Automatic annotation (TrEMBL):
It comes from the Eukaryota. InterPro entries: CarbesteraseB, Type-B_Carboxylest/Lipase. Residues 1-16 form the signal peptide. Residues 94-345 form the Carboxylesterase type B domain. The lineage of its organism: Eukaryota, Metazoa, Ecdysozoa, Arthropoda, Hexapoda. Keywords: Glycoprotein, Signal. The keyword Ribosomal protein does not apply. The keyword Kinase does not apply. This is Carboxylesterase type B domain-containing protein. Pfam families: COesterase.
Protein backbone atom coordinates (compact mmCIF):
# COMPACT_ATOMS: atom_id res chain seq x y z
CA UNK A 1 0.00 0.00 0.00
CA UNK A 2 1.44 3.33 -0.98
CA UNK A 3 0.69 5.96 1.65
CA UNK A 4 2.34 8.85 -0.19
CA UNK A 5 -0.22 11.09 -1.84
CA UNK A 6 -0.11 10.73 -5.61
CA UNK A 7 -1.65 13.24 -7.92
CA UNK A 8 -1.98 13.07 -11.68
CA UNK A 9 -2.36 16.20 -13.75
CA UNK A 10 -3.95 14.22 -16.59
CA UNK A 11 -1.73 15.39 -19.45
CA UNK A 12 -2.92 18.93 -18.86
CA UNK A 13 0.18 20.75 -17.64
CA UNK A 14 2.24 19.74 -20.66
CA UNK A 15 1.30 17.92 -23.85
CA UNK A 16 1.34 14.13 -23.80
CA UNK A 17 4.17 12.82 -25.94
CA UNK A 18 3.13 10.45 -28.77
CA UNK A 19 5.15 7.53 -27.44
CA UNK A 20 6.50 6.58 -24.06
CA UNK A 21 7.71 3.10 -24.96
CA UNK A 22 11.09 1.97 -23.66
CA UNK A 23 12.93 -1.18 -24.73
CA UNK A 24 13.86 -3.49 -21.91
CA UNK A 25 11.13 -2.55 -19.47
CA UNK A 26 10.73 -5.49 -17.07
CA UNK A 27 7.42 -4.25 -15.68
CA UNK A 28 4.47 -3.36 -17.89
CA UNK A 29 3.81 0.36 -17.61
CA UNK A 30 7.10 1.08 -15.80
CA UNK A 31 8.59 4.39 -16.85
CA UNK A 32 10.03 5.92 -13.69
CA UNK A 33 13.71 6.76 -13.91
CA UNK A 34 13.98 5.65 -17.54
CA UNK A 35 15.08 7.71 -20.51
CA UNK A 36 11.88 8.50 -22.39
CA UNK A 37 11.98 9.13 -26.13
CA UNK A 38 9.47 10.58 -28.53
CA UNK A 39 8.92 9.15 -32.02
CA UNK A 40 11.88 11.17 -33.35
CA UNK A 41 14.25 9.73 -30.76
CA UNK A 42 14.48 12.96 -28.76
CA UNK A 43 15.04 12.47 -25.04
CA UNK A 44 12.09 13.95 -23.14
CA UNK A 45 12.73 15.60 -19.79
CA UNK A 46 10.54 14.64 -16.82
CA UNK A 47 7.62 17.06 -16.45
CA UNK A 48 8.19 19.84 -13.92
CA UNK A 49 5.62 22.17 -12.38
CA UNK A 50 5.92 25.03 -9.89
CA UNK A 51 3.43 25.13 -7.03
CA UNK A 52 2.90 27.71 -4.31
CA UNK A 53 4.99 25.52 -2.02
CA UNK A 54 7.85 24.68 -4.37
CA UNK A 55 8.73 22.77 -7.53
CA UNK A 56 7.45 19.29 -8.28
CA UNK A 57 8.92 16.76 -10.71
CA UNK A 58 6.68 14.14 -12.23
CA UNK A 59 7.15 11.01 -14.30
CA UNK A 60 5.70 9.27 -17.32
CA UNK A 61 3.45 6.25 -17.06
CA UNK A 62 0.89 4.26 -18.99
CA UNK A 63 -2.31 3.03 -17.34
CA UNK A 64 -3.52 -0.56 -17.56
CA UNK A 65 -5.99 0.67 -20.19
CA UNK A 66 -3.16 2.10 -22.28
CA UNK A 67 -3.67 5.79 -21.52
CA UNK A 68 -0.41 7.75 -21.47
CA UNK A 69 -0.27 10.26 -18.62
CA UNK A 70 2.07 12.31 -16.48
CA UNK A 71 1.91 11.59 -12.74
CA UNK A 72 3.11 13.67 -9.81
CA UNK A 73 3.58 12.88 -6.13
CA UNK A 74 4.33 14.69 -2.90
CA UNK A 75 2.31 17.85 -3.46
CA UNK A 76 4.08 20.35 -1.13
CA UNK A 77 1.49 23.09 -0.57
CA UNK A 78 0.02 21.41 2.52
CA UNK A 79 -2.55 23.17 4.65
CA UNK A 80 -5.83 21.95 6.12
CA UNK A 81 -6.96 18.50 4.90
CA UNK A 82 -10.15 19.70 3.21
CA UNK A 83 -10.89 20.58 -0.40
CA UNK A 84 -7.81 21.77 -2.25
CA UNK A 85 -5.96 22.01 1.08
CA UNK A 86 -6.18 18.33 1.93
CA UNK A 87 -2.53 17.78 0.90
CA UNK A 88 -1.32 18.38 4.41
CA UNK A 89 1.95 18.35 6.32
CA UNK A 90 2.18 17.02 9.87
CA UNK A 91 2.52 20.40 11.62
CA UNK A 92 -0.61 21.77 9.93
CA UNK A 93 -2.82 18.72 10.38
CA UNK A 94 -3.02 19.07 14.15
CA UNK A 95 -5.78 21.65 14.36
CA UNK A 96 -7.95 19.64 11.98
CA UNK A 97 -7.35 16.51 14.01
CA UNK A 98 -8.56 18.50 17.03
CA UNK A 99 -11.70 19.49 15.18
CA UNK A 100 -12.38 15.87 14.25
CA UNK A 101 -11.77 14.83 17.86
CA UNK A 102 -14.26 17.37 19.15
CA UNK A 103 -16.90 16.22 16.67
CA UNK A 104 -16.38 12.65 17.93
CA UNK A 105 -16.18 13.78 21.58
CA UNK A 106 -12.76 12.20 22.01
CA UNK A 107 -9.82 13.38 24.17
CA UNK A 108 -6.90 15.18 22.53
CA UNK A 109 -4.32 14.85 25.31
CA UNK A 110 -2.40 12.11 23.47
CA UNK A 111 -2.45 10.29 20.15
CA UNK A 112 -2.98 6.96 21.93
CA UNK A 113 -6.06 8.17 23.82
CA UNK A 114 -7.47 9.81 20.70
CA UNK A 115 -7.00 6.69 18.54
CA UNK A 116 -8.47 4.38 21.19
CA UNK A 117 -11.51 6.62 21.43
CA UNK A 118 -11.97 6.88 17.66
CA UNK A 119 -11.79 3.09 17.35
CA UNK A 120 -14.71 2.82 19.75
CA UNK A 121 -16.94 5.16 17.76
CA UNK A 122 -19.49 4.23 15.11
CA UNK A 123 -17.63 4.45 11.75
CA UNK A 124 -20.73 5.81 10.02
CA UNK A 125 -20.83 8.66 12.52
CA UNK A 126 -17.11 9.35 12.04
CA UNK A 127 -17.55 9.69 8.27
CA UNK A 128 -20.64 11.83 8.77
CA UNK A 129 -18.66 14.16 11.03
CA UNK A 130 -15.98 14.60 8.37
CA UNK A 131 -18.53 15.82 5.84
CA UNK A 132 -19.16 18.81 8.11
CA UNK A 133 -15.66 20.02 7.26
CA UNK A 134 -15.89 19.75 3.47
CA UNK A 135 -15.53 22.79 1.25
CA UNK A 136 -18.08 21.24 -1.11
CA UNK A 137 -19.85 17.96 -1.70
CA UNK A 138 -19.10 15.61 -3.34
CA UNK A 139 -15.50 15.76 -2.24
CA UNK A 140 -12.76 13.78 -3.98
CA UNK A 141 -11.49 11.72 -2.34
CA UNK A 142 -14.03 11.31 0.43
CA UNK A 143 -11.33 10.13 2.88
CA UNK A 144 -10.01 13.40 4.24
CA UNK A 145 -7.48 12.29 6.83
CA UNK A 146 -4.80 10.32 5.04
CA UNK A 147 -1.62 9.42 6.97
CA UNK A 148 1.04 12.06 7.58
CA UNK A 149 4.74 11.52 8.23
CA UNK A 150 5.40 12.35 11.89
CA UNK A 151 8.61 13.07 13.79
CA UNK A 152 9.97 10.00 15.54
CA UNK A 153 8.46 9.49 18.99
CA UNK A 154 7.02 6.72 21.14
CA UNK A 155 3.49 7.32 19.84
CA UNK A 156 4.23 8.15 16.18
CA UNK A 157 2.38 6.02 13.64
CA UNK A 158 4.34 6.75 10.43
CA UNK A 159 7.80 8.34 10.54
CA UNK A 160 9.05 7.65 6.99
CA UNK A 161 7.66 7.79 3.49
CA UNK A 162 7.34 4.50 1.59
CA UNK A 163 10.26 5.60 -0.62
CA UNK A 164 12.46 6.08 2.45
CA UNK A 165 11.46 2.70 3.87
CA UNK A 166 12.29 0.95 0.61
CA UNK A 167 15.57 2.89 0.28
CA UNK A 168 16.86 1.54 3.61
CA UNK A 169 15.63 -1.99 2.82
CA UNK A 170 13.04 -1.76 5.55
CA UNK A 171 10.46 -3.77 3.62
CA UNK A 172 10.37 -7.56 3.62
CA UNK A 173 11.32 -8.99 0.19
CA UNK A 174 8.18 -11.08 -0.09
CA UNK A 175 6.27 -11.64 -3.36
CA UNK A 176 3.63 -9.00 -3.94
CA UNK A 177 0.54 -8.86 -6.12
CA UNK A 178 -1.64 -5.82 -6.78
CA UNK A 179 -5.23 -6.33 -7.83
CA UNK A 180 -6.73 -3.91 -10.35
CA UNK A 181 -10.19 -3.83 -11.86
CA UNK A 182 -11.33 -2.96 -15.36
CA UNK A 183 -11.93 0.75 -14.64
CA UNK A 184 -11.38 1.80 -11.02
CA UNK A 185 -13.13 5.15 -11.46
CA UNK A 186 -16.35 3.53 -12.61
CA UNK A 187 -17.50 3.50 -9.00
CA UNK A 188 -17.77 7.30 -9.13
CA UNK A 189 -19.95 7.43 -12.25
CA UNK A 190 -22.36 4.98 -10.63
CA UNK A 191 -22.53 6.86 -7.34
CA UNK A 192 -23.01 10.40 -8.64
CA UNK A 193 -26.26 9.86 -10.62
CA UNK A 194 -27.77 7.60 -7.96
CA UNK A 195 -27.09 10.20 -5.26
CA UNK A 196 -28.55 12.90 -7.55
CA UNK A 197 -25.23 14.73 -7.47
CA UNK A 198 -24.15 14.59 -11.10
CA UNK A 199 -26.23 17.55 -12.31
CA UNK A 200 -24.98 19.92 -9.57
CA UNK A 201 -21.47 18.65 -10.17
CA UNK A 202 -21.74 19.45 -13.88
CA UNK A 203 -22.92 22.98 -13.14
CA UNK A 204 -19.91 23.61 -10.88
CA UNK A 205 -17.43 21.66 -13.03
CA UNK A 206 -15.25 24.59 -14.12
CA UNK A 207 -14.95 25.70 -10.51
CA UNK A 208 -14.41 22.26 -8.99
CA UNK A 209 -12.10 20.70 -11.60
CA UNK A 210 -8.92 22.52 -10.45
CA UNK A 211 -9.65 21.52 -6.84
CA UNK A 212 -10.60 17.93 -7.59
CA UNK A 213 -7.70 17.31 -9.96
CA UNK A 214 -5.00 19.12 -8.01
CA UNK A 215 -3.96 22.03 -10.23
CA UNK A 216 -5.59 24.96 -8.46
CA UNK A 217 -2.29 26.04 -6.87
CA UNK A 218 0.02 25.40 -9.82
CA UNK A 219 1.93 28.60 -10.57
CA UNK A 220 2.01 30.15 -14.02
CA UNK A 221 -0.76 27.97 -15.45
CA UNK A 222 -4.07 29.23 -16.79
CA UNK A 223 -6.60 27.08 -14.92
CA UNK A 224 -9.26 27.37 -17.63
CA UNK A 225 -6.76 26.22 -20.26
CA UNK A 226 -5.88 23.20 -18.15
CA UNK A 227 -9.57 22.38 -17.75
CA UNK A 228 -10.01 22.73 -21.52
CA UNK A 229 -7.15 20.29 -22.08
CA UNK A 230 -8.70 17.78 -19.68
CA UNK A 231 -12.06 18.04 -21.44
CA UNK A 232 -10.35 17.49 -24.78
CA UNK A 233 -8.44 14.45 -23.55
CA UNK A 234 -11.22 12.70 -21.63
CA UNK A 235 -14.46 14.13 -23.00
CA UNK A 236 -13.53 14.73 -26.65
CA UNK A 237 -14.09 18.50 -26.42
CA UNK A 238 -17.55 18.22 -24.89
CA UNK A 239 -18.39 20.69 -22.16
CA UNK A 240 -19.20 19.69 -18.60
CA UNK A 241 -22.90 20.14 -19.31
CA UNK A 242 -22.97 17.24 -21.77
CA UNK A 243 -19.84 15.16 -21.19
CA UNK A 244 -20.41 11.44 -20.93
CA UNK A 245 -20.07 9.49 -17.72
CA UNK A 246 -17.52 6.96 -19.10
CA UNK A 247 -15.06 9.80 -19.74
CA UNK A 248 -15.52 10.99 -16.19
CA UNK A 249 -14.84 7.45 -14.97
CA UNK A 250 -11.59 7.24 -16.96
CA UNK A 251 -10.48 10.61 -15.62
CA UNK A 252 -11.18 9.50 -12.04
CA UNK A 253 -9.23 6.28 -12.58
CA UNK A 254 -6.16 8.16 -13.74
CA UNK A 255 -6.41 10.82 -11.06
CA UNK A 256 -7.01 8.69 -7.98
CA UNK A 257 -5.96 5.12 -8.73
CA UNK A 258 -3.48 4.53 -11.57
CA UNK A 259 -0.42 6.40 -10.19
CA UNK A 260 -0.69 4.80 -6.75
CA UNK A 261 -1.01 1.27 -8.11
CA UNK A 262 1.84 1.87 -10.53
CA UNK A 263 4.10 3.41 -7.91
CA UNK A 264 3.53 0.55 -5.47
CA UNK A 265 4.40 -2.02 -8.13
CA UNK A 266 7.44 -0.05 -9.23
CA UNK A 267 8.85 0.25 -5.71
CA UNK A 268 8.32 -3.35 -4.68
CA UNK A 269 9.51 -4.84 -7.97
CA UNK A 270 13.04 -3.74 -7.03
CA UNK A 271 13.21 -6.15 -4.09
CA UNK A 272 10.91 -9.10 -4.82
CA UNK A 273 8.75 -10.82 -7.48
CA UNK A 274 5.90 -8.42 -8.18
CA UNK A 275 2.70 -9.00 -10.12
CA UNK A 276 -0.42 -7.17 -11.15
CA UNK A 277 -3.83 -8.68 -11.90
CA UNK A 278 -6.89 -7.18 -13.58
CA UNK A 279 -10.43 -8.26 -12.63
CA UNK A 280 -13.02 -7.55 -15.33
CA UNK A 281 -15.81 -10.06 -14.66
CA UNK A 282 -19.17 -8.29 -14.93
CA UNK A 283 -21.26 -10.50 -12.69
CA UNK A 284 -24.57 -9.79 -11.00
CA UNK A 285 -22.92 -8.76 -7.75
CA UNK A 286 -20.88 -5.64 -7.23
CA UNK A 287 -21.19 -1.87 -7.15
CA UNK A 288 -24.15 -1.59 -9.60
CA UNK A 289 -26.13 -4.07 -7.49
CA UNK A 290 -25.24 -2.19 -4.30
CA UNK A 291 -26.66 1.00 -5.84
CA UNK A 292 -29.81 -0.72 -7.10
CA UNK A 293 -28.62 -0.92 -10.72
CA UNK A 294 -28.23 -4.69 -10.96
CA UNK A 295 -30.52 -4.83 -13.99
CA UNK A 296 -28.20 -2.41 -15.80
CA UNK A 297 -24.98 -4.34 -15.11
CA UNK A 298 -24.01 -4.49 -18.80
CA UNK A 299 -23.87 -0.67 -19.00
CA UNK A 300 -21.00 -0.38 -16.53
CA UNK A 301 -17.43 -1.58 -16.44
CA UNK A 302 -16.06 -3.25 -13.33
CA UNK A 303 -15.27 -0.52 -10.79
CA UNK A 304 -13.17 -0.04 -7.69
CA UNK A 305 -13.46 -2.81 -5.06
CA UNK A 306 -15.86 -5.01 -7.08
CA UNK A 307 -13.38 -7.88 -6.93
CA UNK A 308 -13.83 -7.91 -3.15
CA UNK A 309 -17.47 -8.92 -3.54
CA UNK A 310 -16.18 -12.25 -4.87
CA UNK A 311 -13.13 -12.66 -2.63
CA UNK A 312 -15.13 -12.23 0.58
CA UNK A 313 -18.60 -13.27 -0.67
CA UNK A 314 -20.04 -10.21 1.05
CA UNK A 315 -23.72 -10.03 1.89
CA UNK A 316 -23.52 -6.46 3.21
CA UNK A 317 -24.49 -4.81 -0.08
CA UNK A 318 -26.14 -7.75 -1.85
CA UNK A 319 -27.63 -11.12 -1.01
CA UNK A 320 -24.28 -12.88 -1.18
CA UNK A 321 -23.35 -15.85 -3.35
CA UNK A 322 -25.16 -19.17 -3.30
CA UNK A 323 -23.72 -22.51 -4.34
CA UNK A 324 -25.98 -22.53 -7.40
CA UNK A 325 -24.91 -19.08 -8.62
CA UNK A 326 -22.53 -19.08 -11.61
CA UNK A 327 -20.60 -16.32 -9.83
CA UNK A 328 -19.79 -18.78 -7.08
CA UNK A 329 -17.25 -20.46 -9.38
CA UNK A 330 -15.60 -17.09 -9.94
CA UNK A 331 -15.47 -16.61 -6.18
CA UNK A 332 -13.82 -19.99 -5.67
CA UNK A 333 -11.24 -19.18 -8.34
CA UNK A 334 -10.46 -15.81 -6.73
CA UNK A 335 -10.07 -17.28 -3.25
CA UNK A 336 -7.97 -20.22 -4.46
CA UNK A 337 -5.70 -17.88 -6.43
CA UNK A 338 -5.03 -15.71 -3.40
CA UNK A 339 -4.46 -18.68 -1.09
CA UNK A 340 -2.11 -20.34 -3.58
CA UNK A 341 -0.16 -17.12 -3.98
CA UNK A 342 0.14 -16.74 -0.21
CA UNK A 343 1.40 -20.32 0.10
CA UNK A 344 3.79 -20.42 -2.86
CA UNK A 345 4.48 -16.82 -3.91
Amino acid sequence: MVLTFLVNLLCAVVNCAPDFGQPGDSLVGSRLGARVLDLNGTVLQPPLVETLGGSLEGYFMKTISGREIYAFEGIPFAEAPVGERRFRSNHLAGRWTSLAARHARCPESSTEKLMNCLRSRNPVRLVSNQFKMLDYFPNFPSVMFAPVVEPKSSHAFLTETPEEIYARNGTLPVPYIASNVEEEGEVIIIALPVLLLFSPFQKEWRKLAPVMLGYKNIKGVNKDSVTDAIEKYYFKNKTARNFELPGFGRMTTDRYFSPGIYRGLQLHSRIAPTYSSVFNYRGRFGIPTAFGLGNERSKYKVGHSEDLFYVFNMSTYSQGLKLTDPEYEISKFMVNSIVNFAETG
